[in-house]
Design goal:
disordered C terminus, alpha+beta, 3-stranded antiparallel sheet, 163 residues
Length: 163
């Protein structure tokens, strides 16, 4: 592939990983969605990732969730097929519902049941490091002779601040 035919696009996303803007060398493409992920075709860029970081089907605009397990229809605000976990399992009573009717605060990635948005957010790397891991990292950053200095370094405070 010749170098000149490659195109780089920077995607700007929100906390749910919905693409809100696509930037290339000369243009900015703003994208907007309804709460259930609908966007008009004129909004463009259907080949890119879209609502909740999912790729919409180029013909229907539906999202294939759970590796194609179920298709979500953003126009109807529901799934096209019933959930195999419903009506008495974790899928709930409405076998076609998306995010239990609350797409602003919940996310549904697999097509079975949704999770609160807070559990979907990635925590920052500093919050994932335990104090033991922080000490191991600092030992690798600083030579053994400077271990006492490393313990009081600003790096250690930044790494363990969340604990």
């Amino acid at each position: 592939m010749p170098m000149d035919s490659r195109k780089t696009i920077l995607l700007a996303t929100d906390q749910q990983r919905s693409v809100m803007n696509a930037l290339d060398v000369g243009h900015s493409h703003d994208l907007a969605y309804s709460p259930y992920g609908y966007r008009p075709r004129e909004n463009g860029l259907f080949s890119l990732l879209g609502f909740n970081g999912e790729r919409p089907d180029s013909l229907t605009g539906h999202y294939h969730l759970g590796n194609g397990y179920r298709q979500f229809n953003p126009v109807l605000m529901r799934f096209n097929s019933p959930d195999s976990w419903s009506p008495f399992g974790a899928g709930g009573l409405n076998a076609y519902v998306y995010c239990f009717g609350d797409p602003m605060n919940r996310v549904e990635l697999e097509g079975h049941s949704s999770s609160p948005l807070m559990s979907f957010w990635r925590v920052s790397e500093t919050e994932l490091v335990s104090e033991r891991q922080a000490n191991l990292i600092l030992e690798n950053l600083h030579p053994q002779s400077n271990r006492q200095q490393a313990t009081n370094s600003p790096h250690r405070k930044a790494i363990t601040r969340a604990h």
